[in-house]
Amino acid sequence: MDMISSQNVTILVGEERKPVRIQKDILTARCAHFQGLYRNDMHGTQEDTFEWLDEDPDVVDLFVEWVHAQRIGALESDLNVHRYTKAYMLADELCMPQFQNAIMDQLRRPFRTTAVNPGHLAWLEQHAICCLQLHAYFLDQLVYEIHHSTSCYKDGVVRMVDGTEKPTPVKAGLEVLMGKQRNLAMKLFWRVQAFDKVNSQDPSMLEGCHYHVHDEGETCDTRSSKK
Ligand SMILES: [Zn+2]
Question: Which of 2, 12, 41, 108 gives the lowest tally of CB atoms within 10 Å of its CB?
């Protein structure tokens, strides 16, 4: 580690190859993937430019934010769920469990007040073979919501406090999932069937290490006290 200089690493992001520069010593301290790449590079001979042409710049912005500050902005609306989901997949590829857990905590927030669109789960099932904790969260949240916000999924409307109804795309999302992803549809069917309405908690309201990635016996608290 001592031999790693404070020079920059450049990552070219997306089709436009937007250059993102990060100080190498910060990057290797925060990201196990880059730490592994540079571990044996005593003479600085390793390449310092990487191409992430399949990544979206706004997803990589979250990665840069985390690397510099070890925190990410709050996710207040479900409009950004896809962006945070993709950042979660990137964190998984780069072996950054704490970044994943920070994203997980944010991903739960919008679903305290909004029904989850089955499209998020369907997309994750199609695109990520990993990300098991996030997959489990979306599935649990969807099963919970189907029982507690049934009209959203059945009629495609949300009943407001004042009694009016507002259209929501979650019914269409459920129809696509049921029509196109048979394995996932079956998984969902049996989970809904086995749901324990009395003893279940809303997954979006859970605090702490639920759906986090940790080694056996580790929690966020034991991890931070080890520092
Ligand atoms: Zn945790």
Answer: 2
Nearest-angstrom CA–CA distance, 20 and 11 = 5
CA distance 191 to 82: 24
For residue 215, the CA-to-ligand 1 centroid distance in Å is 10
Domain parsing of the chain, residue ranges: 115-199
Contact (CB, 8 A) for 20 and 56: no
Q: Ligand 1 centre from 19 Cα, in Å? A: 32
Q: For residue 214, report the distance from its CA to the centre of ligand 1, in Å.
A: 7
Going from the Cα of 114 to the center of ligand 1, the distance in angstroms, rounded, reads 24
Q: Which residues of the chain have pLDDT under 50?
A: 1-2, 4
> What distance in Å separates the CA atoms of residue 59 and residue 88, rounded to the nearest whole number?
9
CA of 10 to the centre of ligand 1 (A): 31
User: Which has the closest alpha carbon to 14: 66, 72, 59?
Assistant: 59
What's the gap in Å between 101 CA and the centre of ligand 1? 6
**pLDDT per residue as tens digits for the range 185-225:** 999 999 999 999 888 999 999 999 999 999 999 999 988 77
**Which of 106, 121, 120 has the alpha carbon at shortest distance from 76?**
106
In whole angstroms, what is the distance from residue 134 CA to residue 79 CA?
A: 17
Neighbours of ion ligand 1 (CB under 5 A): 209, 212, 220
